[in-house]
Design goal:
Strand content: 5-15%
CATH topology of the largest domain: Rhopdopsin 7-helix transmembrane proteins
Structural class: alpha+beta
CATH architecture of the largest domain: Up-down Bundle
Oligomer: single chain
Number of strands: 6
Number of domains: 4
Shape: globular
Largest sheet: 6 strands, antiparallel
Order of helices and strands: HHEEEEHEEHHHHHHHHHHHHH
Length: 468
């Protein structure tokens, strides 16, 4: 009884869940922008060059210290600091989890910190090209907000919706554990991919404290994300594992992952990559088992298929076209930015399952209410943009924002409702009238069967209709 009372007191209302999620997103994104603004700025954008094993200048920002000094396409091999030479190895730019082990990563992390300290000491630094030509420039102490890459802002906006998907479902049905773990998975997915976006947006490297903190947070986020996904896979819609069995699985999985950071014992090279392969195979096997148990429930089976494709397919693409070439010291076939885009695919797949197949049993009216709320937020946002960026007088800003939203957002909203919610296109009274007419006009069993199937198609818009 006491436990039930405490659960009731600690229960959050739907509005509280959404507001706390939004607060978490705003705080983390604000901290990310602040971190990027504190890094020194040279104006160079470097990428690994697999042919030479060093780095290539892919762009030079206009008005930067490097403009006019280091040409686009230059291969840089070393960074000269006083009498010390720091090699610009291509592996300096690899994700931490793609290194062979912790020892190898520590070696490159030390090099990264040396480069950061050289950029922040306030003196001119020299870059060495493949032809031994020396390029000297003076980095600036801070990065201005306009020099943060545009793809970071795009990802920041896109990742904004990842935890909101979980919060959306959990706020509707906060009691079931399955929806809670979907929310936790959204937080973990957001953290893992957003830290990847931060590392992708940085010009060179962060300080040792920031680098170490981001590494720990990224490792924590990926463990939270994957364990929550495993929880969903094992328990939705059918329970395939006992609670104790999943607890043991989670302990072993986490212990294996955190060994990369603490280095408790030796494991094969690239063992975190091998763990990723294990995750892929496990999720695929579990999903197939869930499908076999759902053969008599087509809606559940369709939802599982969507979850399977949204979780497994992006991981296969990343593993084959990015991680494998990186491990083999080959040029990846997809960019880091494309990986971040794939990071949202999993939850986009879940969103499709929610809207089309009532995944997690979310009713349509709940989705419609959030569309109306989003419409109000769009009006406010457009109003703020008109006043803040375009200096529109306040007397006209609100009217213009309502007009723009009315012409752009609301038609799109109605189109989405029509596509995603076929029942909204026809009321029950209209359906009954058509049913009566079809019944009266049928002059044979075959005609009645054809009319009945046509009515079902118009009413429910199924993807497939089979007579049983």
């Amino acid at each position: 009884m006491a436990v039930a009372d405490w659960r009731e007191k600690l229960a959050l209302s739907p509005a509280s869940i959404i507001l706390l999620t939004l607060l978490f997103i705003v705080l983390t994104q604000g901290a990310a922008v602040y971190t990027l603004l504190q890094q020194p700025w040279t104006g160079l954008r470097l990428e690994p060059d697999t042919a030479s094993g060093f780095v290539r200048v892919v762009s030079v920002d206009p008005g930067s210290p490097a403009e006019g000094k280091i040409p686009h396409g230059t291969i840089l091999t070393d960074l000269m600091v006083d009498s010390d030479s720091i090699p610009l190895n291509a592996k300096l730019f690899m994700y931490p989890f793609h290194h062979e082990n912790r020892t190898v990563y520590n070696h490159y992390q030390i090099q990264q910190v040396k480069i950061y300290n050289a950029l922040t000491q306030g003196d001119s630094i020299a870059w060495v090209g493949t032809d031994q030509k020396i390029y000297a420039l003076q980095p600036r102490d801070y990065t201005n907000i306009e020099h943060i890459p545009i793809h970071f802002w795009v990802f920041m906006f896109a990742f904004f919706f990842v935890p909101l998907v979980g919060a959306f479902v959990w706020s509707y049905k906060p009691d079931p554990h399955v929806t809670l773990f979907l929310f936790i998975a959204g937080i973990g997915c957001y953290g893992f991919h957003f830290i990847g976006a931060i590392n992708s947006a940085k010009e060179l490297f962060f300080s040792q404290s920031v680098t170490e903190s981001l590494f720990v947070l990224e490792l924590l986020a990926v463990n939270v994300y994957m364990l929550a996904i495993f929880k969903l896979a094992f328990f939705y819609p059918h329970k395939l594992l006992s609670d104790f069995g999943f607890f043991v699985f989670a302990i072993v999985f986490s212990f294996y992952s955190w060994n990369f950071y603490f280095d408790w014992f030796d494991l094969p090279a690239y063992y975190l990559v091998l763990q990723g392969v294990f995750q892929l195979i496990t999720v695929a096997v579990i999903a197939n088992k869930q499908i076999k148990l759902s053969t008599q429930r087509p809606v559940d089976m369709a939802a599982i298929r969507i979850m399977q494709l949204s979780m497994v397919l992006p991981f296969i693409i990343v593993m084959v076209f990015y991680i494998a070439p990186s491990v083999l010291s080959l040029k990846p076939l997809i960019s880091k930015n494309f990986i971040q885009i794939l990071g949202t695919v999993a939850f986009l797949g879940l969103a499709i399952g929610i809207l089309r197949f009532r995944l997690f049993e979310v009713e349509y009216w709940w989705f419609k209410s959030w569309l109306w709320l989003l419409g109000g937020c769009v009006v406010v946002l457009v109003d703020m943009l008109l006043i803040g960026l375009l200096n529109t007088p306040q007397l006209y800003a609100l009217g213009l924002s309502v007009v723009l939203t009315g012409f752009l957002y609301f038609p799109l909203r109605q189109w989405l409702l029509g596509k995603l919610m076929p029942l909204e296109n026809q009321t029950l009274q209209d359906f009954l009238a058509r049913f009566s007419t079809s019944l009266a006009q049928a002059d044979s069993p075959e005609a009645f069967e054809q009319g009945w199937q046509a009515l079902l198609q118009a009413r429910f818009a199924p993807q497939h209709l089979t007579r049983v």
